[in-house]
């Protein structure tokens, strides 16, 4: 190796220069070391980061100094040109580089041994050719395909070849790009230099490539061999451009001209592989040119400084040295000019056109490359002319493109020296960025935009309202968005802290901590109000935000229904403040510092303060004693609302701090919990004293003990403090009536009872609590002999209601049956008797006693459940067990009597809330004691089997009536919340004329309004908190009734009342109705009761459509949707929608005939009363019947068809063939015809076995489609009977079949109303069936007698002809018999 190096001194100097540009190439490296370096660089290099050569190059240039950097640069330009022509040095280099390989004469093959040796085991060109169908005849392409190839050597060899034989070398490069496009065609030296023929040559290549169905090209292929191709191609182009710039061939040869000519032309190709690959090559070359241009700019700067230094040092006597620098400067300017031309050519020729390509991948490539250019060459590309392209694609429909655009901007605002040139771009596209951050559909895009806006805000380029919009994202529903906005909020918080501390000259560390907490609290208030305002603006009523909505709590729960409070779910749920704490935990120091937060909250912020809210605090007497000597500076003095939110923040911070150490080291978790418990042992009593009068704040304080290690009270021998904590909690439980406070108190009490080491204290305290409850209950009713009719003052009612609420809350978590039955040996009334007496007052119907009665009912319900839990199962029960069971039965019967009276009784004047509660308890108790629920899976009876309970039929019907009343009440509430413009929608449809042209217009108008109303109902429900609570209560009643049906306590037939309102009351109610469909499926096929299915389906469809007839619901869409759902209960599907089991078709026929009879009576009534409007609505009922025709065969369809004809004849209704009103009936009749024809048509062809299977498949598919589509599928199923059309023997059949096609076209296009089309419709349908008959019986011409033999429709045809003659009386076109039919036949033939 040393000999080779000593013989080629020029090459060593070239390598020293390469080291200056490429630090990963060493002077003394052998070929193998260079390959390893290239491989390492390949692994590190990524298309999403800067190339490693750029910063290293800049660093080397800075280290060398001005003279050493400039000295070698002019010399390669002067010395390399002649060397390239003589060819001497390359001959000396070849033995060095191919020392271990077999030397060959050709230059292009001289690079193959290098690649083959490097990847001898891993790279096989022949194998790759077979896999990819891309020929391996190009050394450059093979090098990029070979993961272990030395790309630096490949680039050097190519430049060497370029200097000696420019034509073949450039052809080799272009052929490499063609291989990368998946094209096996090649160009020679002459073609590559023929710039005028480039387009023609490419056209030839693309034409041959179009012959392949899906040509493989590396950039998009999923083959493993192409996994690293993109990275290798990028590295090769980068090294090629860098080396050519270093050697000077970039400026002196035709390399760039040829490359630009071919790549720009290929980037506009219609073939995606050409366009995509050429765009990637152009972008990669542009990226490499940015590195070179940035280095040349730095070189020019250094030369300029050298010139200025030389002038200052020697003055006017400098002479020769100054001329030398002038020459360098001119040479650098020349290179800069050429580089600027190269850059502009690629941008104008490729980027400007491809950044808006139809392919989103190509658009994303362009935007990603622009991001690299911003980073590598900011002096040129950080300009409005280039930034605007990124701004424009921020609105791209592709998520990938938008994400790349945002990533491109992320590095832009990190370059502070160019911020001045970004102001115009920022102001122009800032609204779009904020819009993306707050509302983009893709989470990744939102997170990236938030990071960009945080960088923008660091340069103070956002307005105050824009910053506020960004800060509101701490309350976003997406956790990643909340976390991403933490950095942004940190900047806002730090600014406010600095501004607040400006009044203090030398703030201490504690001042900074407390000021940070004050700022955090004020920001929470500010953001909360802004969010409330935003929510209020989006509401339909616009009433504004509630005063309590700043807090994450549930507000004043005293006035709410007890069931609504259960919406809170877990007591440790995350509210607004908890979400903000979670988002800012790692960013804002004050958020994670729970100790400082606790200290600030323990201070008295009202003492001597003038900056408060101006209102009386109501707790000054307590806080002054606690906070004696604690001075509160105005810098961190908290307002009322800030203190409330910071108390929530304290709870969230303690919870998060505890969760942070879960699963950590054993000692760390124990240490954090111990520190927290010690601090709370001291501070918690003071918090109870300070906030005991505020129910919202004390509700949060009551949750803090859940985070403590109660065993430390025993370890620290602080049992008196633990007893005091018990007293504090029970005091809040006994003094507050808020359901939220009561619930949190009971949860904390349960936490106390779970501490087994403190059992003695816990037992004493819980007995004291029960005694206190017993005393308060008896004191509240003392002195009244007849509680049922006694008069209570308002305060007494509130007190009794609060006691009942406490008992109900405590009984929900603790067995209090002994306490309830305790009567002290008969000396006084027990709690059960007192509660029963209170419940007796429910019949009075006093509104102010409603919640009291509800709580009392819940107490007795829980008592029955707890007592049932204590039942035992023994063959020989003891006397105590028998007495226990008898007592339970007696109490249950007495409670049941009141429940039935209040829920479904007719004599009592019960309030609505009491009715609802009584109904739910009635259903739940019947589910608990239902005979079907008293047996386990192993047929073992439960202890409650001896007390099974059943509901008689009369009460079941009353319960169904109660559900109907609840549905109507909720529907009225929904109607009140809708817009007033929808109320008069039915008025516009009153018209005295039955004009055929006006009818479709009105139908369209009605259809246009229906979805609007349906869409707005759930929207308004979501927007109003009160509507949400109403929906929750309503769904609670419905789900209880549905649960009773599933358990068997209520008969399945009563489920029709739920199904009848499907699609009317919102999506949640619809989900409940779908469960009823599952119950029907199980009842019909699992339990073998198809008659019940017939009854329920018939009743549900009738009731649903009655709402339409009574103008309660607009349009039949809801009933059609119900019909589709009910049709799914007729069968059970398995894998791939195969029918596993189905109900017998006779029951489906029964449903159809029952409904046809019902609608026939309705039509007859409307016809007799001359009620045209109602008759028009009733005709749409036939659309409802279509989805339920699934799984029927031809015989069933014939029965239904005959019954329909009979019903219409009995109703004396004229079915007008030309009327748009009767389209539903014609569609229904056509569907029946399709069912009849699909089973019989294959028999005429003599291929029973094969065609019958096909028909079965068609039937299954058609049944599935019929549940989704309407009439569109019907046209597809008419193909089998239309096969005999070409037979010339049946002249009358052909027009009939053509007419059938016309009918299908007309059915599919309801908007095109042609009178003659409507004339032909029934005739065409009838003749299809006649054709089927003619096929079956070979005769020359089908006779009329054969038609009734098949379908019995001869009389119907005669009636249709009579109707056609009188059609002009109804505004239709005059009937012309076969003439109009012939016209239609000719029209259809022309269309074909």
TrEMBL record:
Superkingdom, taxonomy of origin: Eukaryota
GO biological process: sister chromatid cohesion
Residues in SCD domain copies: 351-436
Low complexity bias (residue ranges): 98-108, 1336-1346
Ranges of Polar residues composition bias in the record: 550-562, 1348-1357
One term under GO cellular component: chromatin
Stretch list, region Disordered: 1-124, 306-329, 538-562, 974-1023, 1228-1392
Biased segments, Basic residues type: 10-21, 74-84
Biased segments, Acidic residues type: 40-67, 1260-1270
Ranges of Basic and acidic residues composition bias in the record: 319-329, 538-549, 1228-1242
Protein name: SCD domain-containing protein
Lineage: Eukaryota, Fungi, Dikarya, Basidiomycota, Agaricomycotina
